[in-house]
Design brief:
single chain, about 500 residues, alpha/beta, Jelly Rolls, Type 1 dockerin domain, TIM Barrel, 6-stranded mixed β-sheet, binds zinc ion
Length: about 500
């Protein structure tokens, strides 16, 4: 709205002979006043830009008794001016203000301006501007004005946008802005900078990874592995930190370190899991602190995902469980994973247990030799570790529940089996049939502690879970992962053994 350039179009030839302002003999610092011109005892370094009149008067003052009256102005850019000395440095930020007064009877647009030379000529920029009502002192101010980089021969001055009216100036002030209050420091893992590390951080980072969006995610505290980018590995580490909060105390250094590994402590973070042999006790790292005491628990488990054709049944099942704060175990079919990594990330982020269902779901796995058995397991393990950015082993659900002595004497993990078979894979099976199976087991007392066999690849199964999750919550059950169910009930699992129930 201000015809700013016009004001200066003829200003090139103005010569300025002004005292140079210099407030300090010593280096200046934050919060320090550099200029405080009240004109009580002199011109304080200010004078005219050209042929206008600039004089001290005691007929008007914003503070004290005196101000400067600028009159006989032939151009809008005529006004009180002073050269800024070496206290003001190009490229740095300063606060400026001044009080102005005019009595023209109309509102006049006025500016506190800066002239500087950039090496190729003079430039004029405004520091502050505003409408100034007649017969009223008005403050023009800018708390943070950066003097342009490369600026030299700086002159601070007061002018009008167009009017040639007389005006008064007083209390021209400049200081180095106070240092910014120190930014609060947030712990690694406090993704959203709300001061704590909790499920919201996990949810926010998950959302960011899935959509590559979201304002609440901060790189400085989300980049758990400090590699400069946010990946699933960061999410996985965040979940580990969340589960093992004591680790946050050891993370002030820039590398993720673990405390100690004793013979009994489970591996944490990115630590390589010690190789187990069949018969060894399984490392159960499940966090069961979220399950209230005295609850009946059931481990719903879902095979054969990710949904191979992009169906959303697996996600619907996760979401139905998430709504109740429940967790389940998902046994993933390796060759269905590529392209559906986000479903696995989503499961991990939701607190569900990611698990292994072999690479290509062989129907004769029980006839494989040891090398073949191990290869089917390891290929999925490596894939999941790659997606989640961890190095761990995963529970295995045997395809068709087919076991063999070769399998049980080869693989270093337990095999959750089938305590209750919903038979959701049978042709024509309905959601209601699955619901009835579970409700009857709950009512006859046989559901508590059971591993329930289900498949995420059927819409009827998703529908059943959407109905069962709230029903189970209302009936005193907590749906949890296989590992959580065993941990909560104080039961161990052993590598190479099958489990239908934790009891
Ligand atoms: Zn299967």
């Amino acid at each position: 709205m201000y015809s700013f350039k016009k004001c200066f179009s003829t200003a090139m030839s103005v010569s300025i002979l002004l005292a140079t302002l210099s407030a300090n003999a010593f280096p200046v610092s934050a919060g320090q006043t550099l200029l405080d011109a009240g004109f009580e005892s002199g011109l304080d370094g200010f004078g005219a830009r050209a042929a206008e009149s600039v004089e001290r008067v005691n007929t008007k003052a914003y503070e004290g008794s005196y101000s400067l009256l600028v009159s006989n102005r032939g151009n809008a850019w005529n006004g009180a001016a002073a050269s800024l000395g070496s206290d003001w440095k190009a490229g740095e930020t300063y606060a400026f203000s001044c009080a102005v007064y005019q009595a023209s009877g109309e509102t006049v647009d006025m500016k506190l301006s800066l002239q500087y030379n950039d090496g190729s000529g003079d430039n004029w920029v405004q520091i502050a501007e505003g409408p100034v009502s007649s017969d009223k002192w008005t403050i023009l101010s800018n708390d943070k004005y950066m003097i342009p980089a490369g600026a030299a021969s700086c002159v601070l001055y007061v002018e009008t946008a167009e009017s040639l009216c007389d005006f008064y100036v007083d209390s021209i002030y400049s200081e180095i802005p106070s240092a910014e209050p120190p930014k609060p420091t947030f712990s690694r893992g406090d993704v959203n900078h709300d001061g704590g590390i909790d499920k919201k951080d996990v949810a926010d980072l998950t959302g960011w990874l899935l959509t590559k969006g979201g304002d609440s995610v901060n790189l400085d505290t989300s980049d758990m592995d400090k590699d400069g980018i946010l990946t699933a590995a960061d999410l996985s580490l965040l979940r580990q930190f969340f589960i093992y909060p004591e680790l946050t105390r050891t993370t002030t250094t820039t590398t993720v370190t673990t405390t100690t590994t004793t013979t009994t402590a489970p591996p944490v973070n990115n630590e390589v899991w010690p190789e187990l042999k069949p018969g060894d006790k399984w490392y159960n790292t499940a966090d069961v602190s979220w399950i209230p005491a005295g609850k009946k628990t059931v481990a719903l488990s879902f095979d054969d995902g990710p949904c191979p054709n992009g169906e959303n049944y697996g996600i619907r099942i996760q979401q139905a469980l998430n709504k109740q704060g429940f967790h389940a175990t998902f046994f993933y079919w390796g060759e269905r994973i590529p392209g559906h990594e986000s479903e696995i990330l989503s499961a991990e982020a939701g607190g569900h247990e990611v698990a292994n269902h072999t690479w290509n779901h062989p129907d004769n796995y029980n006839h494989y030799d040891a090398a073949g058995v191990l290869s089917q397991y390891t290929r999925v393990k490596d894939k999941l570790n790659d997606i989640l950015g961890v190095k761990r082993d995963y529970l295995l659900r045997l395809p068709y529940l087919n076991n063999s002595t070769t399998i049980s004497s080869t693989l270093p993990v337990p095999f959750p089996n089938c305590g209750i078979n919903t038979a959701d894979y049978e042709p024509g099976h309905t959601a209601q049939q699955t619901i009835s199976t579970i409700q009857q087991a709950a009512q006859n007392g046989s559901l508590n502690g059971k591993v329930v066999l289900m498949h995420e690849v059927y819409e009827e199964t998703a529908k059943a879970v959407e109905s069962l999750a709230p029903w189970l919550a209302q009936n005193g059950y907590v749906v949890c992962t296989v590992s959580e169910m065993f941990k909560y009930n104080g039961k161990d699992m052993y590598a190479g053994r099958t489990y239908d129930s934790c009891f």
